[in-house]
């Protein structure tokens, strides 16, 4: 692996990890039974009641946005030094936008850090959905960090908290 090749990806994964931690904390604060061993397999009365009011978006904290910007500036320096990461080279070759790179990092993160599989399952409120989903993607964060229950998939997409923030 070329020098500095993994640094950019590691930096971006660290930012994603902190965002996942933030969204998990918010979910736990609103979850009436966060330790329920059957979480994601059914919708309790308490959860159904909690699904009724709409929620506000959870903005990406400024410190996390600054950390992401710092990761990109560090990668800019590596690129100027002639050692761009594979992620940056891929983004350039495929003409990926920042949003595309964010989605790519979110999709591959569980393969790099298996803990994220379980956290994605938690955030999807479905133990069998351990990968990034449209509900966790940017632009879908129109509110709820609570269980999605039996609402339509269109409603869930509008109401889930985005891992990546609004774009």
Brief rundown of the structure:
It is built from seven helices and no strands. The protein has 167 residues and is mainly α.
Description of the structure:
The longest helix has 26 residues, at 5-30. The chain has seven helices and no strands. The chain has one domain (5-159). It is an all-alpha fold and 167 residues long. It is elongated. Residues 139-160 have low confidence and may be disordered. Helix 1 (5-30) runs antiparallel to helix 3 and helix 1 (5-30) runs parallel beside helix 6. 54% of the residues lie in helices and 0% in strands.
Quaternary status of these chains?
A: single chain
Mean pLDDT: 76
* Major sheet summary line: none
- Content of β-strand: under 5%
Number of strands: 0
Secondary-structure content class? mainly alpha
The H/E string reads: HHHHHHH
Distance between the termini: 32 Å
Which blocks of ≥5 consecutive residues have pLDDT under 50?
139-160
- Our count of domains comes out at 1
How are the SSEs ordered, and which strands pair?
Layout: H1 5-30, H2 45-50, H3 62-80, H4 86-93, H5 98-112, H6 115-124, H7 153-159
Helix pairs in contact: 1-3, 1-5, 1-6
